Amino acid sequence: MIWTTTERGELRLTEKKMTTMEPPDRDEADLDYPDCLLVCPDFVLGTLSLTVTDLVEEALAPLNLRLRHYQLLRLLHFDGPRLQSRIGPVLGVDRTTVVALVDQLEKLKLAKRVRSPDDRRAYMIAATAKGKRLAIKATELVGKVEASMFAPLSVEEQNVVRKLSARLLSEPGILADVHARAVRR
Question: How confident is the model at residue 20 (pLDDT cuts 50, 70, 90)?
Answer without folding.
Answer: very low
